[in-house]
Amino acid sequence: MIAFLARTRHPGRTDITDWLAWGWATLGTLVVAIPIAWAVISSLKTEAEINSFPPALVPRAAQTITVEGQEKPLSVWIRTAPDGSEQTVALVRRVGLSATVLDPAKPEETFRVPVTELRQLKEFHLQFSNYTEPMKQFDFLRYLWNTVFVTVVATVLTLLLNSMAAFALSKYRFAGRNAMFALILSTMMIPLSVIMVPAFMVIVGLNLADNLWGVILSTVSTPTGVFLLRQYMLTIPDDLIEAARVDAASEFRIYWRIVLPLCAPALAVLAIFSVIWRWNDFLWPLIVLSSPENYTLQIGLSSLQGQFNVQWHYILAMTVVTLLPVTVVFIFLQKYITEGVASSGVK
Amino acid sequence: MTAISMKDLRKSYGSLEVIHGIDIEVQSGEFIALVGPSGCGKSTLLRMISGLEPISAGQMSFDDQRVNELSPAQRQIAMVFQSYALYPHMSVRKNLSFGLENLRMDKAEINRRVDAAAKLLAIDGYLDRRPKALSGGQRQRVAIGRAIVRQPRVFLFDEPLSNLDAKLRVQTRSEITKLHKQLKTTMIYVTHDQVEAMTMAQKIVVLNKGKVEQIGRPLDLFERPANLFVAGFIGSPRMNIYPGKVVSTDGDGVMLDSPHLGRFIVPGIGVDVQVGNDVAIGLRPSHLKLGPVTPGTGGGTMTVEQVESMGHETFVYGRTSQSDELTIVHVPGHFEAETGSSLTFTFDPVFAHLFSSADGRSLKGARI
After folding, report:
1. Which residues form the ABC transporter domain (chain B) (predicted)?
2. Of A10, A211, A249, A320, whose CB count within 10 A is highest?
């Protein structure tokens, strides 16, 4: 790995291209990695800490102390007296520019000091409740299940339908084959935002509004998938299919037993793409689904963002949870993904 | 055991006709070879027999039953492809049993047949390997095995040996011949290699440009080619062809005059030959001898261009003075000649083949 990264254009010496390449690679890595790292770190901060300015890198929380005679735990501050001496105090309440504090050693005596003399004491703290709370409060397990359901079912159907279309387009000769293929490809150029309204009306007409199947069925046939699989199937020799035909295999059996297994690499690529697409899908599920029990993760996430307040600590935590499955998929299948991107030019 | 009859078979792609009415009768249990240069339509014809390629016109029947509309499976044929077309994701055993599973055959029967075929072809040692892990010769045998287990009515071979090296090709050639003797199934074998056709087939069909040029036993084609095309195609190296003219005819034969070979009389030719006709004279390299021309023989002089000695035989390539085409002389044993040197060759006119220059037809009486 080190040897790989340290390679230079001319063995044994470094020139400007090496520095530019390293610089560019480092910059790219940082640009991609910093927001993710920031999100992960921030997801473990308390709500107050996320909103505090200037932001801190390490998740911290105010140090608290339980004092006799006070109901709640009090936050701990350092008071710098005008004479320069420092003293640890607990904050009871704060009104305007002055604060009521007490000395934890003598809890009965409270006294007032200007806030400018106070500096809060913070300690390292991981706020795991950012993760556990929404799980209870917002029914995230429900959203998670909905997302998994949509992703798995849509991916299976995508693989089946697209491979069937690709099989027909690559291995049968029929009138209008190329026109059909061009038509399928041309739908790639129409963005969802253009067909959003009519597509939604179709879903309503099919009684699939606010139904997970409404999200699934409208996404299973993708021009990308048909294109990717067709190109791959073109490389399967026709001889194999004819041999199977001579071997008395039905057309479906040829598809199922010969073509599909031989397409495994392309199917893997499409499966990964489909998982990523469906998992991250936001706009279409948002349009189709309206009741909270049908929400997918992405929509559930957005529901944490209200009109008047944004619960960043929950959003960030749940975003990290949402990222995990896709990341795991990517780590294990990155060879196929890079191959797929290289061979199909889509991502 | 199936007899195949083809009557006026035609194949066209749109307005382009590639097979122009072919009539072939294949006896039950016969081994016939379809030969011809590339693009002559032999593979297309084989695919029409198999049912993979629809028949545009004419009739194909197996044992007097019309099969034009039947699928390959219904025709019960088995085919060995040039590329072998083994299923790369299946083991050898699966490759062999796939066709039988499709017929919903009993498991025990499938195993029995696969094992029998594997033993017959000596591939039983690697039934669990994938095709990728096999050598070319082994793949070839698996492909044949896949055809055998089905116990088909007809075996079709599409240039099965063209991907093998020379030594393996000779070996597999004899194995297929042996297989045919054991199974006694009708076999149709497509090849562009006339040596394969000559050595394996009981009957050869020579095709050219979508038409049958001649059908016959291998030796018949060699000794009595029906036309110039067959004469040039069958035999290796090819027959020498020279232009000539009929000078006179009488009861004994025809006197010919050729700028390359001089004047000589070919005995025993009567039909269709008239004085003044242009003819093509065909002489096999083995019928030419080096040596001076004597009365009663024909002969010429050539400038040597190349000598190929195989040790036990030598082919001398040269040009007669006015000729565009090479003259090839077969010399038994080892022989050496300087390039550019002049050699005289001679032949017995009895061996000359005569063809009409107008249409290439053999002018009969063609002989050994």
Report:
1. 4-234
2. A249
